Amino acid sequence: MAYDHTAKMKERRDKWKAAGLCATCGKDKERDEVQRCNKCARQSRDWRCRREYGITLEQMEEMIDEQGYRCALCKCELKTSGRNTHVDHDHKTGEVRGILCLDCNIKLGQYELIKELNLIERFEEYLDA
After folding, report:
1. Integer Cα distance of 81 and 20 in angstroms
2. φ and ψ at 87, to 5 degrees?
3. Which has the higher per-residue pLDDT, 109 or 11?
4. Residue-range definition of the domain harbouring residue 87
5. Is 45 inside any structural domain?
6. Mean pLDDT of all residues belonging to the chain
7. 68 pLDDT band (50/70/90 cuts)?
8. What is the DSSP track for 60-89?
9. CATH label of the domain that carries residue 43
10. Is 89 in contact with 112 (CB distance < 8 Å)?
């Protein structure tokens, strides 16, 4: 029978999570409601920023600072990094435009799709009727 490395890793992570430890490294977490310790969470976010947007987490945080810790669109308050901060980028060129809150990121994505499908005029006609 072959050694199942993936199953062993999952088993180990499940034990760590059940014990209230970081799911990545097994060390103590700062808060119970998160799955990873701050160090592992930052490493994961940095890896994702590099892979998906070609910027580092540090560059993302510099952009947030340059924006005055505000969403580039609605100007609501942003945290340094976390679930409410999203890198806005052009899907065609990959160019990073700014940092948005979750709501603006979703709405901008919907707007771009509506614009691409030439639905703006139809929406206006519908609303004017």
Report:
1. 23
2. -80, 120
3. 109
4. 33-128
5. yes
6. 86
7. very high
8. HHHHHHHTTSB-TTT--B--SSSTT-EEEE
9. 3.40.1800.10
10. no
Nearest-angstrom CA–CA distance, 7 and 28: 23
| Residue 77 contacts residue 70 (beta carbons within 8 Å) | yes
Dihedrals phi, psi of 83, to nearest 5 degrees: -65, -25
Model pTM score = 0.73
Per the structure, the count of domains in the chain is 1
Radius of gyration from C-alpha coordinates of the chain: 20
pLDDT of residue 76 exceeding 90, the answer is yes
- The CA–CA distances, whole Å, from 20 to 36, 45, 125 equal 10, 21, 55
φ and ψ at residue 89, rounded to 5 degrees = -145, 155
Q: Return the amino acid letter for 118.
A: N
Check pLDDT > 90 for residue 52.
Answer: yes
Q: Show the tokens assigned to 120.
A: 């703006």
